[in-house]
Amino acid sequence: MTDQNNTPSQADDKKKIVVSGIRSTGNLHLGNYYGALSKFLRMQDDYDCRFFIADLHALTTNPDPKQLHESVKNILAEYLAAGLDPEKSTLYVQSDVPEIPEMYLLLNMHVGIGELMRTASFKDKARKALGLTGEGDEIEKEIIGNEKSQARVNAGLLTYPTLMAVDILIHHADFVPVGKDQEQHLELTRRFARRFNSFYGVDYFGEPVNFNFGGEALKVPGLDGSGKMGKSEGNCIYLIDDEKTLRKKVMRAVTDEGPKEPNQKPSQPVENLFTLMELVSEPEVVKHYRDAYADMSIRYGDMKKQLAEDILKVTLPIRERILDIRSNDEYLSKVVRQGAERARAFAADTLKDVREIMGIRKI
Fold it and tell me: What is the dihedral angle through the alpha carbons of 238, 230, 340, 98, rounded to the nearest 10 degrees?
């Protein structure tokens, strides 16, 4: 049972299942922390949480094999350093659960190419892969007519929503904490669940909803003046950044020439800094700089110094724990081994049912 804001009802006796994962590309940043990890920490005492490192999803960008392996270990250490408890939550690596790729194949038989090509994230990533700058809907023609070019869009990128749906449905998740950029994929997951049920005349898969604690999905901005904080955009503050690196990044953040008149609406780059400050600073600090902007007395250098200090209060304790955990390979192996065992137990039951429903049975 949920209320109108997609938050779980406390009247339910059985713990609801929460599933989410982060791609193993690089390190976790402030956007990951406030957009996902902070939510994970609030869930793990009250819900059946299953959090994974999405190394199969990372393959869509053809990463260096050695770097991919190191990224998995880095993100696992960062998960743990941020406060995820393997005794409370199931923490696992996506590729350690072979039931996932098998069900991915099976579910793809009920997914249309057209609906995948129309997803906003696919179009954006396909444009980047092909080096296109247009914003029109002609991306399908560009992809199909791109035979002579060395650039290509891989099929894994196209079917990314199917794999995400399997990650969720294989656990019969009730809630999936996602940001704005993943809401369309979550809606596709619900569509695929309905389609499977309808095609086979069963009531097997439920329809998971976003877990947002009653608020809108959070979008943490980057330091480049536009968009969200993201690894590929190079506008991140990483949880592992040392003090000197972090200060330098914040001081280089994009701003503008300053307000030209009292109570002027801040430009997007400046509003981004205020958004970050609202995440990490005390309310009175935010008010001080909002007021200073309104009366045109603001000094961006002072604001950035304050912002850096407040971010460091959040990230430095996490960084210390990351370095400690990352050096303990035995502990990391134990965590993912136990997590895989639990995840496979859940996934095996679902895959067995799906195969039976689809008619894949032993003779």
Answer: -150
| DSSP per-residue string spanning 106-143 | HHHTT--HHHHHT-HHHHHHHHHHHT----SSTHHHHH
User: Hey, CA dihedral for 246, 248, 254, 259, is it positive or negative?
Assistant: positive
Q: Which spans in 281-326 are helix H?
A: 283-294, 300-326
The pLDDT tens digits for 90-126 are 999 999 999 999 999 999 999 999 899 888 788 878 7
* 273: pLDDT strictly greater than 80: yes
Q: Which two tokens stand for residue 228?
A: 């969200």
User: Which residues have C-beta within 8 Å of that of residue 146, sequence separation ≥ 6?
Assistant: 130, 152, 153
Q: Residue 279 and residue 320: Cα distance in Å, rounded?
A: 21
Over residues 284-333, the pLDDT tens digits come to: 999 999 999 999 999 999 999 999 999 999 999 999 999 999 999 999 99
CB 231 within 8 A of CB 199: no
What predicted TM-score, i.e. pTM, was given to this entire model? Answer: 0.84
Task: Quickly tell me which residue has 């991306």 as its tokens.
Answer: 139
Q: Looking at the annotation, which residues are catalytic?
A: 125, 228, 231
Q: Kindly list the structural domains of the chain, giving each domain's residue range(s) and its CATH number in brackets, ordered by start.
A: 17-111+159-220+329-358 (3.40.50.620), 243-324 (1.10.240.10)
